[in-house]
Design goal:
By secondary structure, the protein is an alpha/beta fold. The protein is 48% helix and 18% strand. It has a single domain (3-154), classed as Rossmann fold (3-Layer(aba) Sandwich). The chain has a six-stranded mixed beta sheet, with helices on both faces.
């Protein structure tokens, strides 16, 4: 199930992230890319106040970033996206703690997840997957390395 995310609503809920950072949006996109890679999910993240002259939509793998121009809000853009999805909105999860966005999600029967809950999901997914990958590919023990070296060097002839 893909996600529609209110980016600036999520950023302050993630430990170590702040809206005051100049690269807050880039950092969130990178985090979402890793989440999508590990969870095999798709994300559309919306940000307010697009800088002039920048593309309004950019794709980063399974993450589509939508930069909403000044005069509009990410909340409005998410609501419009849900409206365009119609009945298909039921197949999406909206991530926001904003009451208006939550209300719009409920109106079209989209699933709803608070920014706090999604931040926790990110933390769990990224930390659990990291531990799993480490156990799936454990480093060889020193004895195993020595055994392999002896095996391979045993067939070599030294001049």
């Amino acid at each position: 199930m893909p996600y529609l995310i209110d980016g600036h609503n999520l950023i302050p809920k993630i430990p170590g992230f702040s809206l005051r950072e100049i690269d807050d949006e880039t950092r969130l996109i990178e985090l979402l890319q890793e989440y999508c890679r590990r969870s095999r999910k798709q994300v559309e993240v919306f940000f307010d106040n697009s800088p002039p002259g920048q593309p309004r939509v950019r794709t980063f793998g399974n993450v589509t970033a939508r930069f909403v121009r000044a005069g509009e809000s990410a909340d409005q853009a998410i609501t419009q996206k849900l409206s365009r999805l119609g009945n298909a909105a039921r197949n999406w999860t909206v991530v926001s703690s904003d009451r208006e966005v939550q209300s719009a999600a409920r109106a079209v029967r989209a699933r709803l997840l608070s920014s706090e809950a999604f931040a926790e999901l990110l933390r769990e997914t990224l930390s659990d997957k990291q531990s799993l990958s480490e156990t799936e590919n454990p480093s060889p023990k020193a004895e195993e390395v020595q055994e392999w070296l002896e095996l391979f060097e045993g067939g070599r002839r030294h001049p």
